[in-house]
Write a structure and sequence with these properties.
The complex is a heterodimer of chains A (298) and B (230). Chain A is α/β, with parallel strands linked by helices and 298 residues long. Chain A folds into 2 domains: 2-128, Glutathione S-transferase Yfyf (Class Pi), Chain A, domain 2; 135-294, Rossmann fold. Chain A is 43% helix and 10% strand. Chain A contains 14 helices and 8 strands. In chain A, the strands form 2 sheets. Chain A has a 4-stranded parallel beta sheet with strand order 2-1-3-4, sandwiched between helices. In chain A, strands 6-5-7-8 form a 4-stranded parallel beta sheet, sandwiched between helices. In chain A, 48% of the residues are buried. Chain B is built from 11 helices and 5 strands, in the order H-E-E-H-E-E-E-H-H-H-H-H-H-H-H-H. Classes of the chains: A alpha/beta (298), B alpha+beta (230). Chain A binds chain B through residues 9, 12-13, 38-41, 43, 45-48, 54-55, 57-58, 61, 111-112, 114, and chain B through 103-104, 114-120, 123-124, 133-134, 137, 140-143, 165-166. The structure holds iron/sulfur cluster (2 copies) and FE2/S2 (inorganic) cluster. One iron/sulfur cluster (SF4) binds at residues 116-122, 132-133, 136, 164-166, 168, 170 of chain B. One iron/sulfur cluster binds at residues 125-126, 128, 130, 132, 154-160, 170-171 of chain B.
Chain lengths: 298, 230
């Protein structure tokens, strides 16, 4: 399967570990994620005006690229666009819903007078949905090194789940990540905070808010026995990992815990080459390697 | 334009609001000089390379403000012309020797690139037909190679910056990217290193001296007979 892939800026910078592991896992499963030949920011920036139109120009441009890829034969009749980053998924999918209103679509198309018209037919997918479609049986077949004895708590954050029209699973009690982790052989730990807010962009100028949320979001899964948290979103990952430093300054009792993307756990369970684990990149506050070594997984 | 003007081969232009008749086929820059203006800023190579003559104009009956290089664009009847001597664009001070080609360095010096709304206005303004929006976006994700590739022909005219609704200065961002890419990422060109060594060792001193001492006639002759690489 060849499918258009939208990386977004995080996958090229702070979340390289997510991309490198996801790409390797995908190719094991026979999925070729073809990066859009041209792409721009998914669309997370402050709108210039309050008519809400302008900020949808960027995501719609990206969706037009999928049409172009089909026309030029880079992919064949594949109008789905897969994303790894939850923020990108959310923004692109939201824009797609926004232009269901034909009047708005016409305005945006008219504004982008150098692009071909967006026809509204691209479907935005998260990588988790694509994995579900590929099937857990097929994934199970690739598990060469089950994550036996590794106590993993899932963490979704909000962008993949809410609002309901955008979400990939039940907005209050999703299970898609748990199912995947079980297939990987992990001991899945219940995480009552799995759909909580990570603090999002407050991390830039109000670190203390995020430090408090990080403390709350980690405390309960740790109490339930979690040794590691599996995430889906670069911003959640950054906040849950890096802000442990500030959280510890506020709450002495916080135990540190490593945070990894579920795609990294897949690469480990598939027993791929170590370079695909994304663990050597200098991106961690709490290095996951010691724990994984202790569990004979690294 | 009346019939007699056409016969005379002239077009009407308005320079800062005042009407002039100038010969057909002149560039904006030459038309303004024809009308008596003298360029002391905003003119350089006159060949479309230096980027100093960026200008804005409008054509009678059309609402759009258009942009062009004054030394390249020829006048049309009913053009409203002016001159932009300088773009006072933001340009942070940095020492490229002390930077590293990290993915965040462009954002550090130009944090406003994160505000790009992908409107493509910059691309439409560019007289070099560059994909300016695409290189701003590549800058946002720290892809120095892509910024360098896409912005290679930028002449720094400043028009993209003047049109950007979020006040980004694409060309200065790109210049930093190319400096970092050239200095830290691109493989060194061995033939350049070799040639620099030869220059330093004095291989061309004699020839240089001859040139410096040659008469104007000799220089002219050598210039017209020079090898031109095609
Ligand atoms: S990129 Fe900007 S500064 Fe460079 S040539 Fe184009 S408009 Fe001029
Ligand atoms: S004009 Fe400015 S906001 Fe619009 S695409 Fe160019 S850099 Fe981005
Ligand atoms: S004067 Fe140099 S580009 Fe016009």
């Amino acid at each position: 399967m060849r499918i258009p892939y939208f990386p977004g800026c995080a996958m090229k910078t702070t979340a390289k570990n997510c991309e490198v592991s996801a790409m390797a896992v995908a190719s094991k499963l026979g999925i070729e994620m073809v990066e859009l030949p041209r792409w721009n920011c998914c669309g997370v920036f402050p709108s210039l005006v309050n008519d809400d139109l302008m900020r949808h120009v960027a995501p719609i441009r990206n969706l037009i690229r999928v049409q172009e890829m089909n026309k030029s034969g880079i992919v064949e009749n594949e109008y789905r666009l897969v994303t790894l980053c939850s923020m990108c998924y959310h923004t692109l999918k939201e824009a797609n819903l926004f232009v269901k209103d034909k009047e708005k679509l016409t305005k945006i198309n008219t504004f982008m007078d150098r692009e071909e018209e967006y026809e509204g037919g691209v479907k935005v997918l998260s990588f988790l949905e694509l994995l579900k479609e590929v099937g857990y049986e097929k994934i199970a077949k690739e598990v060469k090194k089950p994550l036996k004895g590794l106590k993993v708590a899932p963490y979704y954050g909000c962008l993949l789940l809410r609002p309901r029209e955008i979400g990939i699973d039940d907005p209050e009690n999703p299970t898609i990540l748990e199912k995947l982790l079980e297939v990987l052989g992990a001991d899945v730990v219940d995480n009552p905070c799995k759909v909580q807010c990570c603090g999002s962009y407050h991390t830039v100028d109000k670190k203390s808010i995020v430090a408090k949320l990080t403390y709350d979001n980690l405390r309960y899964p740790i109490e339930n026995g979690a040794e590691i948290i599996a995430t889906c979103c670069p911003l959640c990952t950054f906040n849950l990992d890096s802000r442990q430093k500030e959280a510890k300054e506020l709450y002495r009792d916080l135990k540190e815990i490593p945070i990894v993307y579920y795609t990294q756990l897949m690469a480990i369970a598939f027993d791929l080459e170590k370079k695909f684990f994304g663990l050597d990149l200098d991106l961690y506050y709490k290095n996951p390697k010691p724990l994984l070594k202790a569990k004979n997984l690294y | 334009m009346s019939k007699s003007d056409v016969d005379e081969g002239k077009v009407r232009v308005y320079i800062m609001g005042r009407e002039y008749k100038v010969p057909f086929g002149l560039t904006i820059m030459k038309a303004m000089e024809y009308a008596g203006y003298r360029f002391i800023r905003g003119a350089g190579c006159r060949g479309g390379f230096c980027g100093s003559c960026a200008t804005v104009y409008r054509i009678e009956g059309d609402y759009k403000l258009r942009v062009a290089l004054a030394c390249q664009k020829t006048v049309e009847d009913g053009m409203y012309l002016t001159q932009l001597p300088f773009t006072p664009a933001n340009k942070p001070v940095y020492d490229v020797e002390k930077l590293s080609p990290s993915v965040n360095v462009l954002l550090e010096y130009y944090p406003e690139i994160a505000k790009c709304v992908s409107c493509n206005t910059c691309t439409k303004a560019c007289p070099q037909d560059l994909e300016v929006m695409d290189y701003v976006q590549a800058a946002l994700r720290g892809d120095l190679e892509e910024v360098s590739r896409l912005s290679f022909d930028c002449i720094g005219c400043g028009l993209c910056a003047m049109r950007c609704p979020t006040s980004i200065v694409p060309y200065n961002v790109a210049q930093l990217a190319r400096r970092l890419y050239g200095k830290y990422v691109m493989p060194r060109a061995k033939h350049v290193d070799d040639r620099v060594k030869e220059v330093e060792e004095g291989k061309f001193d004699e020839e240089m001296k001859n040139l410096m001492e040659a008469s104007l006639d000799v220089l002219k002759e050598r210039y017209t007979k020079r090898d031109i690489e095609k």
